[in-house]
Amino acid sequence: MRILGIETSCDETGIAIYDSDLGILSNELYSQIDLHSKYGGVVPELASRDHLSKIIPLIEDALTKSQLKKTDIDAIAYTAGPGLVGALMVGATVASGLAFSWGIPAIPIHHMEGHLLAPMLEDNKPSYPFVCLLVSGGHTMLVEVLDFGTYNILGESVDDAAGEAFDKTAKIMGLGYPGGPQISKLAELSLIEDDSYPRPMTNKSGLDFSFSGLKTHTANIVNKSSKDQLALANIANAFQRAVVDTLMIKSKRALKLTGHSRLVIAGGVSANKYLRTAAQKMMSEINGEVFYPRHEYCTDNGAMIAYVGFERFKRKIYNENDLSVRVYPRYPLDKLSQFS
After folding, report:
1. Is residue 134 part of an annotated ligand binding site?
2. Is 139 known to sit in a ligand binding site?
3. Where in the chain are the domains?
4. Residue 340: predicted pLDDT
5. C-alpha dihedral over 327, 328, 333, 338, to 10 degrees?
6. 5-34 residues labelled b (16+ CB within 10 A) or e (exposed)
7. Is 300 annotated as a binding residue?
8. Which of helix, strand or coil describes residue 148?
9. What is the pLDDT of residues 262-315, one digit of tens each?
10. What share of the chain is helix, strand, coil (3-state, %, to 5)?
11. Whole-prediction pTM value?
12. Which residues pair with residue 140 across a beta bridge?
Protein backbone atom coordinates (compact mmCIF):
# COMPACT_ATOMS: atom_id res chain seq x y z
CA MET A 1 0.00 0.00 0.00
CA ARG A 2 1.54 3.32 -1.09
CA ILE A 3 0.25 6.80 -0.29
CA LEU A 4 1.37 10.06 -1.90
CA GLY A 5 1.35 12.92 0.62
CA ILE A 6 1.02 16.60 -0.33
CA GLU A 7 1.63 19.43 2.15
CA THR A 8 1.07 23.09 1.12
CA SER A 9 -0.43 24.74 4.20
CA CYS A 10 2.00 27.65 4.42
CA ASP A 11 5.44 28.32 2.94
CA GLU A 12 6.84 24.84 2.36
CA THR A 13 5.92 22.48 -0.46
CA GLY A 14 6.22 18.95 0.89
CA ILE A 15 5.76 15.78 -1.18
CA ALA A 16 6.34 12.27 0.16
CA ILE A 17 5.47 8.66 -0.56
CA TYR A 18 4.70 6.27 2.30
CA ASP A 19 4.88 2.50 1.83
CA SER A 20 3.02 0.34 4.36
CA ASP A 21 5.90 -2.15 4.44
CA LEU A 22 8.97 0.03 3.91
CA GLY A 23 7.96 3.37 5.43
CA ILE A 24 8.92 6.65 3.74
CA LEU A 25 10.28 6.01 0.23
CA SER A 26 10.85 9.66 -0.68
CA ASN A 27 10.45 12.97 1.10
CA GLU A 28 10.81 16.04 -1.10
CA LEU A 29 10.68 19.53 0.39
CA TYR A 30 10.96 23.00 -1.07
CA SER A 31 11.17 25.82 1.46
CA GLN A 32 10.22 29.40 0.63
CA ILE A 33 12.28 30.94 3.43
CA ASP A 34 14.50 32.91 1.03
CA LEU A 35 11.43 34.24 -0.77
CA HIS A 36 9.71 35.54 2.36
CA SER A 37 12.70 36.52 4.53
CA LYS A 38 12.97 39.95 2.89
CA TYR A 39 9.44 40.70 4.11
CA GLY A 40 9.98 39.39 7.64
CA GLY A 41 7.14 36.87 7.30
CA VAL A 42 5.06 34.86 4.86
CA VAL A 43 3.29 36.74 2.05
CA PRO A 44 0.25 34.55 1.23
CA GLU A 45 -0.03 35.43 -2.48
CA LEU A 46 3.65 34.75 -3.10
CA ALA A 47 3.40 31.48 -1.18
CA SER A 48 0.51 30.27 -3.36
CA ARG A 49 2.32 31.11 -6.59
CA ASP A 50 5.48 29.35 -5.48
CA HIS A 51 3.56 26.21 -4.51
CA LEU A 52 1.96 26.24 -7.94
CA SER A 53 5.31 26.27 -9.71
CA LYS A 54 7.00 23.66 -7.51
CA ILE A 55 4.35 21.05 -6.72
CA ILE A 56 4.27 19.03 -9.96
CA PRO A 57 8.07 18.82 -10.36
CA LEU A 58 8.35 17.67 -6.74
CA ILE A 59 5.71 14.97 -7.28
CA GLU A 60 7.62 13.79 -10.34
CA ASP A 61 10.87 13.75 -8.32
CA ALA A 62 9.21 11.75 -5.52
CA LEU A 63 7.98 9.10 -7.95
CA THR A 64 11.35 8.92 -9.72
CA LYS A 65 13.38 8.60 -6.50
CA SER A 66 10.99 5.92 -5.22
CA GLN A 67 11.25 4.09 -8.57
CA LEU A 68 7.47 4.10 -8.81
CA LYS A 69 4.90 4.87 -11.49
CA LYS A 70 1.59 6.63 -10.94
CA THR A 71 -0.13 3.23 -11.16
CA ASP A 72 1.77 2.16 -8.00
CA ILE A 73 0.02 4.81 -5.87
CA ASP A 74 -3.10 3.68 -3.98
CA ALA A 75 -4.29 7.06 -2.67
CA ILE A 76 -3.32 10.72 -2.40
CA ALA A 77 -3.40 12.45 0.98
CA TYR A 78 -3.30 16.24 1.09
CA THR A 79 -3.44 18.95 3.72
CA ALA A 80 -6.95 20.40 3.71
CA GLY A 81 -6.44 22.75 6.67
CA PRO A 82 -5.72 24.71 8.70
CA GLY A 83 -3.44 27.07 6.80
CA LEU A 84 -3.33 29.82 4.19
CA VAL A 85 -6.36 29.41 1.95
CA GLY A 86 -4.53 30.03 -1.33
CA ALA A 87 -1.69 27.68 -0.43
CA LEU A 88 -4.14 24.99 0.68
CA MET A 89 -6.09 25.36 -2.58
CA VAL A 90 -2.99 24.56 -4.63
CA GLY A 91 -2.40 21.25 -2.86
CA ALA A 92 -6.08 20.31 -2.75
CA THR A 93 -6.66 21.07 -6.42
CA VAL A 94 -3.61 19.10 -7.57
CA ALA A 95 -4.49 16.18 -5.28
CA SER A 96 -8.08 15.99 -6.50
CA GLY A 97 -7.07 16.37 -10.14
CA LEU A 98 -4.44 13.65 -9.97
CA ALA A 99 -6.73 11.35 -7.98
CA PHE A 100 -9.43 11.69 -10.64
CA SER A 101 -6.92 11.10 -13.42
CA TRP A 102 -5.33 8.10 -11.70
CA GLY A 103 -8.63 6.62 -10.51
CA ILE A 104 -7.73 6.60 -6.81
CA PRO A 105 -9.09 8.33 -3.68
CA ALA A 106 -8.03 11.80 -2.50
CA ILE A 107 -7.95 11.93 1.31
CA PRO A 108 -8.09 15.33 3.11
CA ILE A 109 -5.80 15.51 6.14
CA HIS A 110 -5.80 17.85 9.11
CA HIS A 111 -2.42 19.57 9.25
CA MET A 112 -2.15 19.32 13.03
CA GLU A 113 -2.97 15.61 13.00
CA GLY A 114 0.05 15.26 10.73
CA HIS A 115 2.30 16.97 13.29
CA LEU A 116 0.64 15.07 16.11
CA LEU A 117 1.57 11.70 14.61
CA ALA A 118 4.92 12.59 12.99
CA PRO A 119 6.83 10.64 15.71
CA MET A 120 5.08 7.50 14.45
CA LEU A 121 7.47 7.62 11.50
CA GLU A 122 10.40 6.84 13.81
CA ASP A 123 11.68 3.39 14.80
CA ASN A 124 11.33 4.43 18.44
CA LYS A 125 7.68 5.44 18.32
CA PRO A 126 5.35 6.10 21.26
CA SER A 127 2.59 3.69 22.17
CA TYR A 128 -0.93 4.98 22.74
CA PRO A 129 -2.05 6.70 24.92
CA PHE A 130 0.14 9.76 25.34
CA VAL A 131 0.04 13.52 25.77
CA CYS A 132 1.28 15.59 22.85
CA LEU A 133 2.64 19.11 23.13
CA LEU A 134 2.11 20.63 19.68
CA VAL A 135 4.27 23.73 19.25
CA SER A 136 4.51 25.47 15.90
CA GLY A 137 4.32 28.90 14.32
CA GLY A 138 0.55 28.91 14.26
CA HIS A 139 -0.44 26.59 17.10
CA THR A 140 0.43 25.72 20.68
CA MET A 141 -1.73 23.07 22.28
CA LEU A 142 -1.74 20.09 24.59
CA VAL A 143 -3.61 17.08 23.23
CA GLU A 144 -4.45 13.78 24.87
CA VAL A 145 -3.99 11.07 22.22
CA LEU A 146 -5.90 7.94 23.22
CA ASP A 147 -5.63 6.20 19.85
CA PHE A 148 -5.47 7.10 16.18
CA GLY A 149 -8.26 9.60 15.54
CA THR A 150 -9.22 9.90 19.21
CA TYR A 151 -7.93 13.22 20.50
CA ASN A 152 -8.89 15.43 23.43
CA ILE A 153 -7.68 19.01 23.41
CA LEU A 154 -6.54 19.80 26.94
CA GLY A 155 -5.34 23.35 26.39
CA GLU A 156 -4.26 25.77 23.66
CA SER A 157 -2.96 29.27 23.13
CA VAL A 158 -5.45 32.07 23.63
CA ASP A 159 -3.31 34.50 21.58
CA ASP A 160 0.17 34.12 20.07
CA ALA A 161 1.43 30.58 19.58
CA ALA A 162 4.93 29.82 20.87
CA GLY A 163 6.46 29.78 17.40
CA GLU A 164 4.69 33.02 16.52
CA ALA A 165 6.06 34.62 19.68
CA PHE A 166 9.58 33.50 18.70
CA ASP A 167 9.18 35.01 15.22
CA LYS A 168 7.73 38.30 16.44
CA THR A 169 10.32 38.67 19.18
CA ALA A 170 13.11 37.96 16.71
CA LYS A 171 11.77 40.72 14.47
CA ILE A 172 11.70 43.13 17.42
CA MET A 173 15.34 42.22 18.09
CA GLY A 174 16.31 42.81 14.47
CA LEU A 175 16.99 39.16 13.75
CA GLY A 176 16.16 37.26 10.58
CA TYR A 177 13.19 35.11 9.58
CA PRO A 178 12.24 32.52 10.73
CA GLY A 179 12.84 33.77 14.22
CA GLY A 180 12.94 30.60 16.31
CA PRO A 181 16.30 29.29 15.07
CA GLN A 182 17.76 32.81 15.17
CA ILE A 183 16.82 33.32 18.83
CA SER A 184 18.06 29.86 19.81
CA LYS A 185 21.41 30.42 18.10
CA LEU A 186 21.86 33.83 19.72
CA ALA A 187 20.81 32.51 23.14
CA GLU A 188 23.77 30.11 23.11
CA LEU A 189 26.10 33.13 23.42
CA SER A 190 24.57 34.19 26.74
CA LEU A 191 26.62 33.60 29.89
CA ILE A 192 23.83 34.17 32.44
CA GLU A 193 20.67 32.36 33.50
CA ASP A 194 18.04 35.08 33.78
CA ASP A 195 14.72 33.70 35.04
CA SER A 196 13.13 37.08 35.75
CA TYR A 197 10.87 37.02 32.69
CA PRO A 198 7.22 36.07 33.30
CA ARG A 199 5.95 32.49 32.81
CA PRO A 200 2.49 33.43 31.46
CA MET A 201 -0.62 31.82 32.99
CA THR A 202 1.39 29.34 35.06
CA ASN A 203 -0.02 30.77 38.28
CA LYS A 204 -3.54 30.00 37.06
CA SER A 205 -5.20 26.61 36.92
CA GLY A 206 -5.83 25.11 33.51
CA LEU A 207 -3.71 24.21 30.51
CA ASP A 208 -4.17 27.15 28.14
CA PHE A 209 -1.23 29.26 26.97
CA SER A 210 -0.63 32.96 26.36
CA PHE A 211 2.60 34.39 24.95
CA SER A 212 1.64 37.90 23.81
CA GLY A 213 2.41 39.41 27.23
CA LEU A 214 5.85 37.77 27.32
CA LYS A 215 6.51 39.15 23.83
CA THR A 216 5.58 42.67 25.01
CA HIS A 217 7.73 42.30 28.13
CA THR A 218 10.69 41.27 25.98
CA ALA A 219 10.10 44.17 23.57
CA ASN A 220 10.31 46.62 26.49
CA ILE A 221 13.59 45.06 27.62
CA VAL A 222 15.00 45.29 24.08
CA ASN A 223 14.05 48.96 23.80
CA LYS A 224 15.89 49.77 27.05
CA SER A 225 18.97 47.68 26.24
CA SER A 226 22.26 48.69 24.59
CA LYS A 227 21.36 46.32 21.71
CA ASP A 228 24.92 45.01 21.42
CA GLN A 229 25.36 41.30 20.72
CA LEU A 230 25.84 40.23 24.35
CA ALA A 231 22.83 42.22 25.55
CA LEU A 232 20.66 40.70 22.82
CA ALA A 233 22.03 37.23 23.57
CA ASN A 234 21.02 37.58 27.23
CA ILE A 235 17.55 38.73 26.18
CA ALA A 236 17.19 35.86 23.72
CA ASN A 237 18.23 33.36 26.37
CA ALA A 238 15.88 34.79 29.00
CA PHE A 239 12.98 34.80 26.52
CA GLN A 240 13.65 31.24 25.40
CA ARG A 241 13.92 30.01 29.00
CA ALA A 242 10.57 31.64 29.83
CA VAL A 243 8.81 30.06 26.84
CA VAL A 244 10.24 26.60 27.49
CA ASP A 245 9.56 26.74 31.24
CA THR A 246 5.95 27.66 30.49
CA LEU A 247 5.60 24.77 28.06
CA MET A 248 7.09 22.31 30.55
CA ILE A 249 4.97 23.48 33.49
CA LYS A 250 1.79 23.02 31.46
CA SER A 251 2.95 19.69 30.01
CA LYS A 252 3.66 18.31 33.48
CA ARG A 253 0.17 19.36 34.58
CA ALA A 254 -1.34 17.62 31.56
CA LEU A 255 0.50 14.38 32.33
CA LYS A 256 -0.65 14.51 35.94
CA LEU A 257 -4.24 15.25 34.90
CA THR A 258 -4.41 12.36 32.42
CA GLY A 259 -2.23 9.90 34.30
CA HIS A 260 -0.14 9.21 31.19
CA SER A 261 3.61 8.70 31.35
CA ARG A 262 4.50 9.42 27.72
CA LEU A 263 4.99 12.91 26.28
CA VAL A 264 5.30 13.61 22.57
CA ILE A 265 6.62 16.99 21.43
CA ALA A 266 5.90 17.85 17.79
CA GLY A 267 5.67 20.83 15.45
CA GLY A 268 8.33 23.24 14.25
CA VAL A 269 9.37 24.42 17.72
CA SER A 270 9.99 20.79 18.78
CA ALA A 271 13.35 21.06 16.98
CA ASN A 272 14.51 23.57 19.63
CA LYS A 273 17.49 22.05 21.48
CA TYR A 274 16.76 23.80 24.77
CA LEU A 275 13.17 22.55 24.72
CA ARG A 276 14.29 18.98 24.06
CA THR A 277 16.82 19.11 26.89
CA ALA A 278 14.25 20.53 29.31
CA ALA A 279 11.67 17.90 28.32
CA GLN A 280 14.16 15.08 28.74
CA LYS A 281 15.06 16.34 32.21
CA MET A 282 11.44 16.75 33.27
CA MET A 283 10.40 13.30 32.05
CA SER A 284 13.35 11.58 33.70
CA GLU A 285 12.40 13.20 37.01
CA ILE A 286 8.89 11.69 36.83
CA ASN A 287 10.02 8.36 35.34
CA GLY A 288 8.30 9.07 32.05
CA GLU A 289 9.29 8.92 28.39
CA VAL A 290 9.55 11.69 25.83
CA PHE A 291 9.40 11.30 22.04
CA TYR A 292 10.11 13.66 19.14
CA PRO A 293 10.12 13.43 15.36
CA ARG A 294 13.46 13.79 13.60
CA HIS A 295 14.26 17.37 12.58
CA GLU A 296 13.02 17.07 8.98
CA TYR A 297 9.64 15.92 10.33
CA CYS A 298 9.34 18.78 12.85
CA THR A 299 8.60 21.48 10.30
CA ASP A 300 5.89 21.14 7.65
CA ASN A 301 6.49 18.10 5.44
CA GLY A 302 4.73 15.66 3.16
CA ALA A 303 5.86 12.58 5.09
CA MET A 304 3.55 13.21 8.03
CA ILE A 305 0.62 13.84 5.68
CA ALA A 306 1.33 10.63 3.76
CA TYR A 307 1.49 8.65 7.01
CA VAL A 308 -1.84 9.95 8.31
CA GLY A 309 -3.28 9.33 4.87
CA PHE A 310 -2.16 5.71 5.10
CA GLU A 311 -3.80 5.26 8.49
CA ARG A 312 -7.06 6.77 7.23
CA PHE A 313 -6.95 4.76 4.00
CA LYS A 314 -6.32 1.54 5.92
CA ARG A 315 -9.23 2.22 8.25
CA LYS A 316 -11.47 3.49 5.41
CA ILE A 317 -11.92 6.83 7.22
CA TYR A 318 -12.55 8.87 4.10
CA ASN A 319 -15.20 9.42 1.43
CA GLU A 320 -14.11 7.24 -1.47
CA ASN A 321 -16.18 9.04 -4.10
CA ASP A 322 -15.55 12.63 -2.98
CA LEU A 323 -13.03 14.46 -5.16
CA SER A 324 -14.39 17.93 -4.42
CA VAL A 325 -11.90 20.67 -3.60
CA ARG A 326 -12.56 21.94 -0.08
CA VAL A 327 -10.07 23.58 2.25
CA TYR A 328 -10.38 24.92 5.79
CA PRO A 329 -8.15 27.90 6.71
CA ARG A 330 -9.28 27.53 10.33
CA TYR A 331 -10.13 24.06 11.51
CA PRO A 332 -10.24 22.85 15.13
CA LEU A 333 -8.58 19.49 15.71
CA ASP A 334 -11.64 18.31 17.62
CA LYS A 335 -13.76 18.68 14.45
CA LEU A 336 -11.92 15.90 12.61
CA SER A 337 -15.14 13.98 11.94
CA GLN A 338 -16.00 16.57 9.29
CA PHE A 339 -12.96 15.45 7.29
CA SER A 340 -14.23 11.86 7.06
Report:
1. yes
2. no
3. 2-116+298-339, 128-292
4. 55
5. -60
6. bbbbbbbbbbbbbbbeeeebbbbbbbebee
7. yes
8. coil
9. 999 999 999 999 999 999 999 999 999 999 999 999 999 999 999 999 999 999
10. 50, 20, 35
11. 0.94
12. 135
Tell me which CATH homologous superfamily contains domain 2-116+298-339. Answer: ATPase, nucleotide binding domain (3.30.420.40)
> Domain 128-292, what fold?
Nucleotidyltransferase; domain 5 (3.30.420)
220 annotated to bind ligand:
no
**Neighbouring C-alpha atoms within 13 Å toward the C-beta of 196:** 7
How far apart CA 239 and CA 237 sit, in angstroms, is: 5
d(CA 6, CA 38): 26
Contact 142, 155 (CB under 8 A): yes
Instruction: Tell whether 138 is in a known binding site.
Output: yes
Within this chain, domains 2-116+298-339 and 128-292 share the same CATH topology: yes
Dihedral pair phi/psi, residue 26, rounded to 5°:
-155, 150
> Is there a binding annotation on residue 124?
no
Check the annotation: does 115 bind a ligand.
yes
Amino acid at 174: G
| 262-266, strands of its sheet edge to edge | 150-156, 140-147, 130-135, 262-266, 289-291
Q: Is 111 annotated as a binding residue?
A: yes
